[in-house]
Amino acid sequence: MSVLPGQKLTIGELYVSMAVGLILFLLPNDLKNQLGTTPVSVVMVSLLALIIASALFIAIRRFEAIGAAILTKSVITVISFLFSILNGMLSKSNDYWPTISDYQLITMFILWTVPFLLAVIFRLFTVGKRDTNDYRLGFARFLSLSLRALLLIYLMVLIFKQIMPNKPNVITTRTIYYMPFSKISDCFSGVNGGSMAYLIWHCLILAPLTFSLLILNPHIRWWYVLVISFAAGMAIEILQFTLNTGIVYTDDVIMYLIGGVLGMLLKKLLDKIREAITAGEEKIMLSLEYTPIEYPPAEKEA
User: Fold this and answer.
1) Is 92 buried (19+), middle (13-18) or exposed (0-12) by CB count in 10 A?
2) What string of pLDDT tens digits covers the 302 residues of the chain?
3) Which of 163, 157, 166, 162 is nearest to 74 (CA)?
4) Where on the phi/psi map is residue 192: left (φ > 0), alpha (ψ -120 to 50), or beta?
5) How big is the CA angle at 218 (ends 217 and 220), to the nearest 5 degrees?
């Protein structure tokens, strides 16, 4: 019996996948309680996420199982965050504002990326008799589920970590720096509040957007991706300026553009690797519209 429109997971497989998603959700807090927010804890989250996702795929052998687990984890994460906001508003002072810690941010990124890349690697090197139309269709369904999971987490992080990291304050004076490359220079030199962490974060923040966009529409032109990255970056800075939730830099838009390019290049790179492995038979792997295999007449009759 199939569950979810278009999916081939049985009820039992769906429950197992959802249970794995719950385990992935609980994993960072459990390790935090034992090891604290240390690099060791982050490494353990990565390693255990890899082991758990691998075990799930080996047990069920369907990409949709990993997608369902990722989506379950993301849904629980967002619901938990919303409840924490509600609790904070009811029990804390008027100055309360929800925040996402660096540890939460890193582990959320890991718990989506590790299972996703695991499925991509399995798919990337699948050739021969195992590379069936059903296998390709299952991967396309996995992409659909995992992109929904990414959208939930991405919107939450974008709003509360980038657009509104602080409580909006429309009364006080706003600060904006027009000089290009000044903030980037500060990041490399480590002065005036600049750091490599700031640079890396702003250069990566739009990468998930363009990466997902190219999966949804693999044939979109590169210049259109740049326009979308620029428009999205400008929207973020305008919202920050309007709500007065942070300092606005011209360099931020430049770094957003870099992130948009990085997301596009990553998607193109994975497709090129798949094209090389299949000797040009499958040119686009990361797409919701999979490339069907043309079987010889003899195989079709069999």
Assistant:
1) exposed
2) 344 445 578 899 999 999 999 999 999 999 999 988 889 999 999 999 999 999 999 999 899 999 999 999 999 999 999 999 998 888 877 778 888 999 999 999 999 999 999 999 999 998 888 888 888 889 999 999 999 999 999 999 999 999 999 888 888 888 888 888 888 998 988 887 778 999 999 999 999 999 999 999 998 998 999 999 999 999 999 999 999 988 889 999 999 999 999 999 999 999 999 999 988 888 899 999 877 776 554 454 44
3) 157
4) left
5) 70
At residue 249, φ and ψ (nearest 5 deg) are: -120, 140
**Identity at 12, one-letter amino acid code:** G
Q: Which residues pair with 176 in a beta bridge?
A: 248
Three-state DSSP at 177 gives strand
Measured CA to CA, the distance from residue 215 to residue 292 in angstroms comes to 17
